[in-house]
Amino acid sequence: MINGIDLTNRELKRLIKEKNMWLATLRNNNQPHLVPLWFLYLNSKIYMCTAENSTKIRNIKRNSQATVSLEDTFKAFIIECKAKIISSPFPKDIVEGYGKKFDWDISSTENSNVLIELTPIHKIAFNDDK
To answer: What is the share, in percent, of the chain residues with pLDDT greater than 90?
Structure first.
């Protein structure tokens, strides 16, 4: 269970194992902005690291609603979330998690990066048993 949302064992394993996730945010004209990003699932939240000046960050500053989806469309797993921006210095457990999963030290990047912290609100999943 994450934040009151029941997860199957398969869903939990996918969140831990898979590397890529689609993030949807809304532009100021309500046009969806959809991008693939690496993600880390930790402590019942989803984390994504991205450039501070990116469209997705501008969108989240205006509207904290976001939706994410794992890549496999035949085993759909979509999560509606509340997004929050975390500036550097990043929490140690997240830095370590990114290092282990992606061999990327997000704390020493030359770019001006921030973290997106996604708190799940609702999930949509189907065909997970196939």
So the answer is: 82
**Model confidence, pTM:** 0.93
Q: What is the pLDDT of residues 14-70, one digit of tens each?
A: 999 999 999 999 999 999 999 999 999 999 999 999 999 999 999 999 999 999 999
Closest CA to 23 of 80, 54, 67: 67
Please name the residue that has the structure tokens 């880390």: 40
Q: Which fold has domain 9-125?
A: Pnp Oxidase; Chain A (2.30.110)
CA distance 6 to 8: 7
In the chain the beta strands, taken as DSSP E runs, fall at: 20-26, 32-38, 40-42, 45-51, 65-70, 77-86, 113-125
DSSP 5: B
Q: List the domain boundaries for the chain.
A: 9-125
